[in-house]
Amino acid sequence: MPIEDIARSMRMRMPWPVGQKILRVLNLSRGQGWEQTVEKITLADISAEKLENLNEALREHLLCGEKSVRFYDVGQIAADACGKFAAVATIANDSPFVGVYPSILAEGSLAGLPAEPTLTAIEEDEVGTAFVFCSVRTIIVREPLSPEDFPDHAADDLFESFDEIIGLKNKRLQAVDVVWVPKASGRADVRIDYPAGMTREVAEAAHLILRNTFNTLVGQPILGDPINLFPLIDRMYFDPTEGSVVEIGFGTTTASVKHEKMRRKGLNLRTESYHVGGKANLQTPIEPFRVSLVWSRAIGNNKLSTPELSLNSSSRVAGSASPAMHSVLIRRCMGASDYAFVRSKIEHHLNQPPAVGADKEAE
């Protein structure tokens, strides 16, 4: 795969904080942001080994980076059916998506390509099979406008009345969604691309479309009802050993709703003075409905990878008789190892009994 295509694809997909760490680990030159970095990579004399490593980093990000994820229970019969399908599945080699994989198409090449998921690749490892689907999806991008964007002096009155003017632009992107199925009975997961600008409604619709597409291709209802992930909010927040809490929304017995976000890296809301002091004045434990956790993982060269898990519900859902949350966001993964790490945390807490009463505040 040409280095130009790899560099361009990385720029289009990877958040800069993730991409620059990957380049640092691979000992490749970086500039100030993606624009300068792509130019440096493209002009650099890169060995075949580094080119292969860069291509693999991109492939892993396609499979694991910036995803809205749902989990499904699958039995051995269903797992075997997926294995048989993988062995005979036909991938259309004339598809533009297939022709460039694991790179992605430039935005200008997406017009007229299907919005329905297209099976683009099948990736197998020792524990499961990833079915990779590509499609064209539209997101809304917010861009600040300057006076130069308006004709003549039309902007004079506008910018006297407003501090900032924002324009909304529809932008096509190549979505790379994944259905991963274990080879033995267990939990499958569906990973929907969730870049900046994606709305929850679009992601939820994409989940339903991909589930139906996959079941139709295999010829069996492999993916049924997604697992209810709402219990993870309590179980992971009230476990003091589990990552650092960087965002939380919660209700209190005083009928108020709070939203706190940690601005400084490396700090944990569980032990932050204001948060701890506020909880101490309550008669009962808080009731979280939104939690984001970050872990720090050593990646060499005294650098850390910081994968993030967001469990986003609402106070309305939390107060219902049977609260449900079917999707979580897994972000800032540098590769498959980060994703597997966060996934293992989810699996662990799904298998744990809920904390109740005073046990919640044992921390």
Q: How would you describe what is shown here?
A:
This protein is an alpha+beta fold and 363 residues long. It contains twelve helices and twelve strands. The protein has helices at residues 3-13, 16-25, 34-43, 48-64, 76-88, 96-100, 155-161, 200-218, 231-237, 273-280, 315-318, 336-350; strands at 67-74, 118-124, 128-145, 165-182, 186-193, 244-251, 257-261, 287-294, 297-300, 303-305, 308-312, 328-331. The strands form two sheets. Strands 2-3-4-5-1-12-11-8-6-7 form a ten-stranded antiparallel beta sheet, sandwiched between helices. Strand 6 (244-251) and strand 7 (257-261) form a beta hairpin. Helix 1 runs antiparallel to helix 3 (34-43). The longest helix has 19 residues, at 200-218. The model has no long low-confidence stretch (mean pLDDT 88).
Keywords:
two-stranded antiparallel sheet; single chain; 12 helices; 363 residues; 26% strand; ten-stranded antiparallel sheet; alpha+beta
What's this, in brief?
By secondary structure, the protein is an alpha+beta fold. Helices cover 35% and strands 26% of the residues.
Task: Please compute the radius of gyration using only Cα atoms.
Answer: 22 Å
Low-confidence stretches: none
The biggest sheet, with number of strands, parallel, antiparallel or mixed sense and barrel status, is:
10 strands, antiparallel
SSE ordering = HHHHEHHEEHEEHHEEHEEEEHEH
Order of strands, widest sheet: 2-3-4-5-1-12-11-8-6-7
- How far is the first residue's CA from the last residue's CA? 51 Å
Helix content: 25-40%
Shape: globular
In total, the number of strands is 12
> What is the overall number of helices?
12
The SS-based structural class is alpha+beta
Beta-strand content bin: 25-35%
Task: Specify the oligomeric state.
Answer: single chain
Average of per-residue pLDDT values: 88
